[in-house]
Specification:
The structure holds two protein chains of two kinds.
Chain A lengths: L1 E14 L2 E14 L3 E6 L5 H9 L7 E9 L2 E2 L5 H11 E4 L3 H4 L6 H12 L4 H14 L5 H4 L9 H13 L5 E5 L7 H18 L2 E5 L3 H7 L2 E6 L2 E7 H6 L4 H8 L39 H5 L4 E4 L2 E4 L6
Parallel strand pairs in A: 3-8, 3-9, 6-7, 7-8
Antiparallel strand pairs in A: 1-2, 1-4, 4-5, 9-10, 10-12, 11-12
Chain B lengths: L6 E11 L3 H7 L6 E12 L4 E5 L6 H8 L7 E6 L2 E2 H6 L1 H4 L2 E4 L13 H11 L6 H14 L16 H14 L4 E5 L7 H18 L2 E5 L3 H7 L2 E6 L2 E7 H6 L4 H8 L39 H5 L4 E6 L2 E6 L1 H5 L5
Parallel strand pairs in B: 3-8, 3-9, 6-7, 7-8
Antiparallel strand pairs in B: 1-2, 1-4, 4-5, 9-10, 10-12, 11-12
Helix pairs in contact in B: 5-6, 5-7, 6-7
Classes of the chains: A alpha/beta, B alpha/beta.
Bound molecules: adenosine-5'-triphosphate (ATP) (2 copies), iron/sulfur cluster (2 copies) and magnesium ion (2 copies).
Chain lengths: 319, 335
């Protein structure tokens, strides 16, 4: 059952330097109980996609086209103010920056209790007990003792876990998790991923998991979307994307992963940088860096084509 | 003196006062409550080399990083920078300029009201490294290009950038004072793997060309293996294993190091489940007696619960390795 549908989503920023198109015709869906991994170049638009879905695009950013539907109901309409309560209860978010989510002036216990009480009718005592349980679930040691502590008293990874607890304690149907495990050691990471998978399985939660960690993707995601310069470059089942990527950008990405087995002098890298939003080349946005570029790539923009088990926006697969 | 280590930590401890009215009530214990984030650690970093620190979240890595650049003062012990007490070294601008830090949290370390070009130029101006406006503009442009941004990005404010782009701004800023010693706390955690490869290659190039010295912190063990000459494994504020990176990766000796290496996610998707380090993460406020790893250690015995293990020096083909473990000392760890 499809829970989230994103259809032709386009996001623009009017700036003094002109109109920036940060997301261009992004389409995907996530089913209940499914984890969609989202990877891609830094600045490609992963966080913006999440922000647009939650309705938290910061002005002057705005949805300039496309639709977002949750359970078949549009949640991108101008009347989104009316929908916000639904959104708050149904969509949970773990933002990339844990510090902006946590209020430095309140203890983490107070923040958790408040969030729990806005979503569930619970007494202070029950809400507090639940808050301790969530802190334990995300692996905060001595949760009962530390629930009164303030965000700055926690290490980077512990703050990140508090943010995860804050997002999960409202028991949302759709979870947007933007780099939820970057500040975590591999062991806590395994614990959080196990927790996410358990939630998706037991509650049918749909998860959009943005991460740069291919190990996490390989372990947690059912499908993967690869983004480049505001578009989806490739999308497909996790095994196919990780092990037989079709798009030259995805291939370069997989080749850049440092190996744990042996040490090399230099890491493979994709030379050059992603184009700036003000200077996206005509044709394929990856063409200035693509080792397989040919004439057509520089003039026409490729749509998603079937490419083996995945779909890739690349002229190589134009049948 | 070419042999003087760039940085030396001698018996360094750092405690935080975490007594709170609320905590005091809960614990029904009066008096001050100290959290020992870093506990009697010793290491040194030779010029032009990289020491990495790994370990569980909350084990004290960032605290060591802040101690190493003088943002925290040790509660006990001493830190030497190029043989001089760190506090004395920091009092001299010429030495202070030679150390810099890339913070774990790229958001908190960038002033939101400044344009990126001013953020990156700030150390250049503060230390008067360049005086002419055009030279500064050119240098800032070159730094932004090095980290995969463009000179025109200097006009913008931090909020106009994505997470990884902000992390690259803080890297450009850290490099702008031409430091000789750079503390990198999770410097590439917000970057995709291809930009990460570019930054890590850049860091290695700078090290080779200019002899930079790094204290490097990351949870990504493949990145750590790539970057480190020496590796320290921390657990609850202590360094439990310290030695050449390849020695520790190839032949991990401390039981915690072994478990840590087993918990790495598997890209090959063999379906092999990961083994997270089992058991409760102990509280740093009230660490277990004896070896603080004993509640989770498969090799723990009675001695481990009482006596804190000292460091044993072991020979490895790659060089000497220090391990704080009774089982290793008693030779009953081989498995
Ligand atoms: N307020 C803004 N004004 C102008 N441009 C913006 C603004 N916010 C974001 N952008 C641009 O939109 C693009 C996409 O940003 P987004 O944060 O979605 O990237 P991302 O894929 O999440 O990257 P990362 O992996 O680095 O977090 C970036 O190029 C960024 O510069
Ligand atoms: N200013 C502070 N006040 C009180 N406690 C602190 C403070 N700074 C750090 N701590 C505590 O010290 C311990 C070590 O923190 P530190 O930030 O060094 O961990 P870390 O190893 O960097 O973890 P991470 O991998 O999560 O970043 C943690 O238990 C943390 O809660
Ligand atoms: S369309 Fe052309 S330039 Fe773009 S990825 Fe495919 S081959 Fe490369
Ligand atoms: S000293 Fe004992 S408890 Fe500690 S790591 Fe060694 S065997 Fe385990
Ligand atoms: Mg992002
Ligand atoms: Mg840290």
């Amino acid at each position: 059952m499809t829970l989230l549908e994103v259809d032709g989503l386009t996001v623009e920023f009017p700036t003094r330097r002109g109109l920036l198109r940060a997301l261009d015709q992004v389409s995907f869906s996530i089913g209940a109980g499914e984890v969609l991994g989202v990877v891609g170049e830094s600045g490609a638009g992963k966080s913006l996609t999440g922000a647009a879905i939650i309705g938290l695009l910061e002005p002057p950013g705005r949805i300039a086209g496309g639709q977002i539907r949750l359970d078949g109901r549009r949640i991108d309409t101008p009347t989104r103010e009316q929908l916000r309560p639904i959104r708050g209860r149904q969509i949970g978010a773990i933002f990339q920056d844990p510090l902006t989510t946590l209020n430095p002036l309140y203890s983490i216990g107070r923040q958790l209790v408040e969030t729990i009480q806005t979503h569930l009718q619970l007494s202070d005592r029950d809400a507090r007990a639940r808050a301790v349980r969530w802190l334990e679930e995300v692996g905060i040691p001595a949760a009962r003792q530390r629930i009164g502590a303030y965000p700055h008293e926690f290490s980077g990874g512990m703050r990140q876990r508090v943010v995860i607890a804050l997002a999960l304690c409202a028991e949302p149907r759709l979870l947007i998790a933007d780099e939820p495990t970057t500040a975590l050691d591999v062991s806590v990471q395994a614990q959080i991923i196990a927790l996410l998978k358990r939630l998706t399985r037991d509650h049918g939660t749909a998860v959009m998991l943005v991460t740069h960690d291919m190990g996490v993707i390989a372990e947690a995601a059912d499908r993967v979307a690869v983004m480049y310069a505001g578009r989806i470059a490739e999308i497909g089942p996790v095994r196919a994307v990780v092990q037989q990527p079709a798009h030259p950008y995805t291939q370069g990405l997989m080749d850049s992963i440092p190996s744990l087995q042996h040490r090399v002098g230099r890491l493979r890298q994709i030379d050059g940088a992603m184009p700036r939003l003000t200077a996206i080349p005509a044709g394929c946005a990856f063409s200035p860096r693509c080792p397989k570029v040919f004439h057509r790539c520089r003039v026409e923009r490729p749509d998603l084509f079937d490419a083996g088990d995945t779909r890739a926006a690349c002229w190589l697969y134009d049948a | 003196m070419p042999d003087t280590p760039v940085l030396q930590a001698i018996g360094v401890t750092r405690s935080f006062d975490v007594s709170k009215p609320w905590l005091q009530r809960t614990l029904t214990r009066k008096g001050r409550l100290l959290l020992r984030a870093v506990d009697d650690i010793n290491f040194s970093i030779a010029r032009g080399s990289t020491l990495s620190l790994v370990g569980e979240s909350g084990c004290g890595k960032s605290t060591v990083a802040r101690l190493a650049v003088g943002l925290y003062a040790p509660s006990a012990g001493q830190i030497l920078f190029e043989g001089k007490a760190l506090s004395a070294a920091r009092a001299q601008p010429a030495l202070r300029r030679r150390m810099n830090m890339i913070f774990q949290d790229p958001y908190a370390s960038l002033n939101p009201r400044w344009r990126v070009r001013d953020i990156v130029a700030e150390p250049i101006r503060a230390f008067a490294l360049l005086s002419s406006r055009s030279a500064i503009v050119e240098r800032v442009g070159a730094l932004l290009t090095q980290v995969g941004l463009s000179p025109a990005d200097g006009e913008k404010f931090p909020h106009e950038f994505s997470g990884g782009q902000r992390q690259r701004i803080s890297i450009a800023r850290a490099l702008s004072s031409e430091p000789a010693f750079l503390v990198c706390d999770e410097p590439t955690s917000a970057l995709d793997v291809s930009v990460q490869a570019q930054i890590l290659n850049l860091m290695r190039d700078l090290q080779m060309r200019l002899g930079l010295t790094y204290l490097f912190i990351s949870h990504n063990l493949a990145v750590v293996r790539h970057m480190s000459d020496r590796l320290g494994v921390m657990y609850l504020g202590r360094i439990v294993e310290l030695g050449p990176g390849e020695a520790v990766f190839r032949t991990p000796r401390h039981p915690y190091t072994r478990l840590l290496l087993e918990a790495i996610p598997d890209l090959a998707m063999t379906g092999k489940p990961r083994t997270p380090v089992g058991g409760e993460v102990p509280s740093p406020i009230d660490p277990p007696p004896g070896c603080s790893f004993h509640p989770r250690c498969p090799l723990a015995n009675a001695r481990c619960r009482i006596e804190r293990p000292a460091h044993t020096l072991l020979a490895d083909p790659q060089g000497e390795v220090l391990v704080a473990c009774h089982a290793v000392e008693e030779g009953r760890h081989a498995a």
